[in-house]
Design brief:
mainly beta; Thrombin, subunit H; Pdz3 Domain; 2 domains; about 40% strand; Peptidase_S1C; PDZ_sf
């Protein structure tokens, strides 16, 4: 992992997906693609939907509750067509927030022209005003939003596992579609550019397919718990959390970009074999495998200096183990990623609690700005 917010897994560029082969769309839920005018391009017309007028209050019984949440959401959900300069078209979903359309960066990446469709065949030309590959979020502006397409609200706190949710969007271009499930996991990490990760993600068993990306994952009060990011029609899909989206979207809408904090270290999770190889008392923290020359942590944190074999696995040794950032305990690598993403900014000075040579100590460093992809 790079910098406390990346991974040592293989590089996987989202930008290759929108205008790439259709066979690559299973992993990212918003990459339904095809040549303009082909049959793959036809189903994405928004279909008529009843005038919900904000939707009825959810009633007793599962069907009524789902219907109420759907009707309170669907008029603010859009189909997005993205056209590339080579004649290919991709499509995804989006929803209204702060007078703009929120979607995924991988839905708009590489495209130059955009059409945004709401209910009743109501199409508008759109323009991307901000995008961030590191969070897979983007904001689109249209000239005039329909009166019925009002802002959706994000949840105020992370939903507990088991919360019932709906994924509203346009799978395979079929607008005004909904699937139901629960929040099946929280605090997940998703792959991003340059071996970084998107932390704090929401996991759900609500079905998400190509075309769902960028659409809202909402609770039964019609509040957004996440921005659908990936899924392949299996019993597991993911969304960018409400907390991360609310931190990044105002900057994308206001200035066009967002600057992420940067530690300048390569990190690994502390697995049992790594803990044994480094004589650690407990399996906790984030292991510093490398320190970037000239980066914010250079001269402050220490990377690996050797290796050893534990249970036939070669593990690095000699690096610092980060166990605290300011007053926040770091139990896992994901804890560190979430802290940097939600609590820290470039220029912040952090007190970093580390274990070095069997002793816990505190180092201080000033966060930099994450390099462009």
């Amino acid at each position: 992992m790079n910098d406390g917010t990346g991974s040592e897994q293989g590089d996987r560029s989202r930008r290759a997906v929108l205008l790439g082969a259709a066979g690559a769309t299973a992993a990212l839920a918003g990459c339904s693609t095809g040549f303009v005018g082909s049959t793959a391009d036809q189903p994405d017309e928004p279909t008529d939907t009843p005038d919900a007028d904000g939707g009825p209050e959810p009633t007793a019984g599962e069907n009524g509750r789902y219907t109420g949440a759907y009707r309170a959401t669907v008029d603010s959900v859009a189909v997005i067509r993205a056209y590339g300069p080579d004649g290919r078209a991709g499509q995804g979903s989006g929803f209204v927030y702060d007078g703009h359309i929120v979607t995924n960066e991988h839905v708009v990446a590489g495209a130059t022209e955009f059409e945004v469709g709401f209910a009743d065949q109501d199409w508008h030309a759109g323009e991307v005003v901000g995008e961030d590959v590191y969070s897979d979020l983007a904001a689109i502006e249209v000239g005039t939003l329909p009166d019925y397409a009002t802002d959706l609200s994000f949840v105020e706190r992370e939903p507990p596992i088991g919360t019932e949710v709906l994924a509203v969007g346009a799978p395979f271009g079929l607008g005004q579609s909904v699937s139901a499930g629960i929040v099946s996991g929280v605090d997940r990490s998703l792959s991003a550019a340059n071996e970084f990760v998107i932390p704090d993600a929401i996991q759900t068993d609500a079905a998400a397919n190509p075309g769902n990306s960028g659409g809202p994952l909402v609770d039964l009060d019609a509040n957004v718990v996440g921005v659908v990011n990936s899924g392949g029609g299996d019993n597991i899909a993911f969304g960018i959390s409400a907390a991360l989206a609310q931190r990044i979207l105002p900057a994308l809408i206001g200035t066009g970009d967002y600057t992420h904090p940067f530690m300048g270290v390569g990190l690994r999770p502390v697995a049992p074999v790594l803990a044994e190889g480094n004589d650690l008392e407990s399996v906790r923290g984030a292991y510093v495998a490398s320190v970037r020359s000239g980066g914010p942590s250079a001269g402050t944190l220490r990377g690996s200096s050797g290796s050893t074999v534990v249970n036939n696995v070669e593990v690095p040794t000699g690096g610092d183990v980060i166990v605290r950032l300011d007053d926040t305990p770091i139990r896992t690598l994901n804890d560190l990623s979430i802290y940097l993403a939600l609590e820290a900014s470039p220029g912040d000075e952090l007190a970093v609690g580390i274990v070095r040579d069997g002793e816990e100590r505190t180092a201080r460093l000033t966060l930099g700005e994450r390099p462009d992809p």
